[in-house]
Amino acid sequence: MRILLVEDDLMIGESLRQGLRGEGFAVDWVQDGRSAELAMETTPYTLVLLDLGLPKKDGLTVLRDWRQRGLTVPVLILTARDAVPDRVRGLDNGADDYLVKPFDLTELLARIRALLRRREGRVRELIESGALRLDPVTRAVEYRGQPVALSAREFAVLRALLETPGAVLSREQLEDRLYGWGEEVESNAVEVHVHHLRRKLGSEVIRTVRGVGYRLGETS
Ligand code: CA
Hints:
Layout: E1 2-6, H1 10-22, E2 26-30, H2 33-42, E3 47-51, H3 59-68, E4 75-79, H4 84-92, E5 97-100, H5 105-119, E6 127-129, E7 132-135, E8 140-143, E9 146-148, H6 152-163, H7 171-178, H8 189-201, E10 206-209, E11 213-216
Parallel strand pairs: 1-2, 1-3, 3-4, 4-5
Antiparallel strand pairs: 6-7, 7-8, 8-9, 10-11
Helix pairs in contact: 6-8
The chain binds calcium ion.
């Protein structure tokens, strides 16, 4: 899950980046409207957190341009503009949701989960395959009725594979979901996470497709 965070307030931006990373999201943080546009052209994002009052290009204009170009990525507006007309304009210009600052990280995380659920067409929060069950809220994992303790990144790898059953994800695709810009990625980080997941769940759960990547294996 890779999130684009567009926020020019350094304190808010830094605390959001830390909070979201702590939840296992990869976060790219930019501080003006033009950089947001550039980031969007080069990186596939799962979700955008967009401040409205931004240098170089206003958040509302950035959003309107994205929607006019047909970009469907979920956008959650973060704004101090608590006036009703601003919120209405944001939603009318293609935002999926908004939060008025100051807000609580737990509420932001709940809204992110709701947006991702909607995007994936799920009404229930659990992600399941066979006897494997993931709860993105509590990050609890259950396999064959037994709880399994995973780190935030192990959880993120498993979630990525579960959300695209049948698809092969390359190491680079998984790294993209796990790490934001400027985060140091050990060259074998993904292999290590997969190794730990297999040790905890059984080797059949993740299949290696030689020379390509990984896909979800047997979960019954
Ligand atoms: Ca701002």
